[in-house]
Amino acid sequence: MKQINHLTGLIALVLGLTTIMANAQDKTQKGTIQIYLAYSQLNNDLPVIKVSAKTKKEQKFEPVAGVDINLFFNSETTAGFMGRVNTNNLGNGSLAMPIRFKSQFDTSASLKFIGTVTQNKQFKDQSTELEIAKAKIELTLDEVDSVRSIHAKVLALQPDGQWAPVPETEIKLVVRRLLSDLTATEEETYTTDSIGGEVSADFNMSVPGDSKGNIVVGAKIDENELYGTLVAAKTVKWGTPLVPDHSFSERSLWATRDKTPLWLLIFPNIIIITVWGIIFYLIYQITKLIKLGKENSSV
Q1: Quick one: which H or E segment has residue 275?
Q2: pTM to 2 decimals?
Q3: What is the pLDDT of residues 201-217, one digit of tens each?
């Protein structure tokens, strides 16, 4: 009887150790993921939170695709849940702040965003936080006596609800394009002054616009540690009007076959006809000579 009890206890011990080792192995097999959050805001609208996920493999970080990242505003609660982002092949994703947070966002001088990865089969649970001080850019574009100027003022929201100038902050004056921004002035970056948090510069560029000459001119704070990325932009007729080019539908060397230039159709055919005409004429003359030779020999 004692032997049976000992055997039963031994079996239970082995099963318990096996379960513990299996759980430990599952935990050790899970990798570590790094989450990064970035704040981006355009024209004082609700911001966009950009996320990226990376993991370390063979002494280097690689993007992680297909990972769900939960985003929260101010607190990791149901009320603060903004949404879930699934990373793309580059390990990136983004989420615009839902409109239900607008009133809370408008009155908050300090913003906190939380990103979490939980219950993932490949990676351990992970979380990260991003704290942002609320700020905005006031952009003014004017033209006086044919001199075009860009004025930008950086303001930060204070706890008392007032906006205060932000001095000594780097800002770029740009022309917004489809793929990337162009520097709109001679200097690539400016620093706001110590009094009004302002920068000013003349616009002297010649930039293609739309058919009416419209371009988008803006001011940009790029990936600031306190304020994130802020962009203010306005459409203005400071560009060179774009004249549509319809030459592709006209007869030209680079057009389709049915649009071949007439001279390219006529002259080669004339040359071909002339060459073949000469050949036939020579054949005709040779034939006449042969006939004349036969007649002379018969006589």
Answers
A1: helix 262-298
A2: 0.72
A3: 999 988 899 889 999 99
